[in-house]
Structures are given as C-alpha cells and as structure tokens.
Design a protein that fits this description.
single chain, mainly alpha, 2 domains, three-stranded parallel beta sheet, 3 strands
Length: about 130
C-alpha cells in the first residue's frame, strides 16, 4: 500500500543534518516502492530545494513516485477538517489540512514528522 510522505519527513532525506532514522524511513519506502506524494508536498519540496544535486534527485523521484491528486472530495474533507479544528481552537496550516485529507480520502498511511498531523488525527478520534 502506498504511503504518502509529507515534506516534514522528506527534509530529513534531503538534508545531511537530517535525522538518520527518518532518512532511512524514507529510503525504505522508496526502495519498497511504497513512497507516494501529492501536489502540496511536491510544491513544498520544490520551494525548498537547494542546489543542483537536490534538484536532480527531486526530478528523479518525481519521475517515478505516484502522485495522489487533490480531488473535489479531498478539498471538501480538508475544508471540513479546517473548520472543525478551528472550532476547537487549533489551527493547523491549510497545506497540512489538505495533505492530511488527501491521505484519508485516498486511503493512504501518512508518514510525517509534524505535530499538526498528530493533532488532526486526535481531533478525528475525539
């Protein structure tokens, strides 16, 4: 089953100073053919890419990774989630609501290193 990898985990893969265990998690998902992403994650990564070496790696990854679309049901889910979490006093970034909704709508596990996603999951369980 594909695993949507959030940019919060990808940064460990791209940075030399990234956490080694988190880097290995991404490498393992790539090697197993389970890694996936979605347009907001791609945008965040392209916005933060540094030099030519990172661009080249990102281009190679982009050529093979499944890209799960932001469909109308994903938008609807993200909007509902954003409203619900705001009503509790919690305000996750819009991109995180969209990424979280994308994973849920497409039935994907979400691999991340971001407390906002943990909060969104708790919100749905509560």
């Amino acid at each position: 089953m594909p695993v949507l990898i959030d940019s919060s985990l990808w940064v460990h893969f791209f940075r030399r100073s990234g956490d080694a265990a988190k880097r290995e998690r991404v490498k393992a998902l790539l090697a197993a053919g389970e890694a996936a992403w979605c347009p907001p994650v791609r945008l965040e990564l392209w916005r933060g890419v540094g030099g030519k070496a990172e661009r080249d790696v990102l281009l190679r990854i982009q050529a093979v990774l499944p890209d799960f679309p932001i469909t109308p049901p994903v938008w609807d889910s993200a909007i509902a989630l954003a409203g619900r979490n705001r009503a509790t006093g919690f305000a996750a970034p819009a991109a995180d609501c969209l990424i979280f909704a994308c994973a849920r709508v497409h039935g994907l596990e979400l691999a991340h290193d971001d407390a906002h996603f943990d909060q969104l999951q708790r919100l749905l369980q509560g």
